[in-house]
Amino acid sequence: MRTLAEINEKIGQQKAVVLTASEIKARVAEVGVTQVAKEVDVITTGTFEPMESSGAIINLGHTDPPIKIRRCWLDGVPAYSGFGAVDLYIGASCTVETKDGEEARVRKTTPKFKRGGGHVIEDLIAGKPIQLRAEGQVTDCYPRASFETTISRETINQFYLFNPRNLYQNFIVGVNGGERQLFTYLGPLQPRLGNAVFSNPGAISPLLNDPKLQLVGIGTRIFLGGGVGYVTWEGTQHFPLQKRLPNDTPIGPAATLALIGDAKSMDARWVRGCYFKNYGPSLMLGVGVPYPVLNEEVVARCAIQDKELVAPIVDFSIPRRVRPTFGLVSYAQLKSGRITIEGKNVRTAPLASMYLSLQVAIELKQWIEEGKFTLTEPVASISMERSFLPQDRWTEF
User: What is the distance between the alpha carbons of residues 118 and 128, in angstroms, rounded to a whole number?
Assistant: First the structure.
């Protein structure tokens, strides 16, 4: 029906018709796929959920005299320094250490030890000062042995998110069939099936609206943390061979993406450090993906409803890699607030913010309507044919 170049031309003229995934589903229900495909140029999707496989690359700039950093802490959170002399990588889930290296997890009663890499990244994006302490390897060209200072977004050279695994295409529902409370990456799970927690926002989630990754690939421009980002590669634990429904959507964790973006242009509203009790720190991240309406098939895929998407209910009380499940449940059921497991009525709660996920899609829509954000053609596709995970890991799905 139309090309990406034609859509970008309309965006430049501020004439593009853009709808969020929620709006497109409602519009399709009113007038059908064919009519919507004629009317709409771009569909925006969004999510705001924990993405702990995230982190930031930081280049500090050289000191005088120079230092070759080999150990470093940002507000007490260790940053990896095995690159060049003043290049660092701080992971979102890394925890605060004391000066002698004692891990923060043994000091749970101290509030500051609930702080992690995600909080440091958020504060840097927000323009707040961060204390840096570094130890160097003394060489002839790097004679300095140690360094302490305060850094900020303005004083460092480069600062960008480089996230090895974001945007899970579907995920699991966590429950606890045991006798004691469990503290997990989904938050607290109450014993005897006391609650059920799901992470993915369902029908508005980016990759569930493009289940075969036909529009998303390496080089795709996206909304990342309130700034512009790009897809760089498949994400770690990419598992496109997950079992799928007839509508091509996976029944459990499937594709993932690696993302990159300039953190100096991001907004701390969309990048927030968080902490899961007795599990550790993480990062809540807003990600939005735009889809060009090239044909009716794009609209048909994005018309998917929560009742047509499912996730597996996984029992965390079994301390094994492969855990038993209680079958599949639809996102419509999950979002109703209650599901039934073996005859028991179980309350549900989302880990993703449904409100902020929608706001990501809305903000991206506004950028496109205002001509501030154009779409890109992927330079290469993301493989949907291979996986590096042991197949038996997912047999329970």
Answer: 14
